[in-house]
Amino acid sequence: MEIKELMKTFRQDGLVERITVRPERRANVVELNNVEAAAGLGLQGDRYKGRGGVRQVTLIQAEHLSAVASILGVESIDFTLTRRNILVSGINLLSLKDKDFRLGEAVLRYSGDCHPCSRMEEAFGPGAYNAMRGHGGITAKVIQSGRISVGDRLTPIVTEDTEVKSQD
Q1: CA count, 13 A, side-chain hemisphere, 38
Q2: I need a surface site. Which of 12, 31, 91, 167 has the fewest CB within 10 A?
Q3: How many Cα neighbours within 13 Å face the side chain of 162?
Q4: CA proximity to 116, closest of 49, 74, 68
Q5: In 55-108, which ranges are continuous DSSP H helix?
Q6: What pTM, to 2 d.p., does this model score?
């Protein structure tokens, strides 16, 4: 099988574990059971909503939280301190590069890597910036409005150009 085909094959969909928004800069995140995603704008109640650009939604893998905790030498880290909007498990978020994906009722498009910032040192202590490198998740743009809820699936979208094979 060619690499091009392998990049279209997913073992399973992802699962939305948690959702947060941050109403303003440096404010604590607010955890939600569901949120409305607005096309071209972002998540309702999040400070980035309406700014346009590529950072309308941030996602991070639950599996990476364990990796970061291990690198920091601690048992676990608090997802809310990562300042990401959506915690997802069961799918490699980097495999969504150049792809659209359904998240609940909304459709998002991978727009880049979500690199850590200096706030990681404040949240998790010395060395956290480097611990988060490569584990910070992704950014996405909202292509189609819709509600995203805890428990929803993250499903890569099947198109003629990029036939995605999910093998549940």
Answers
A1: 11
A2: 167
A3: 18
A4: 68
A5: 62-72
A6: 0.88
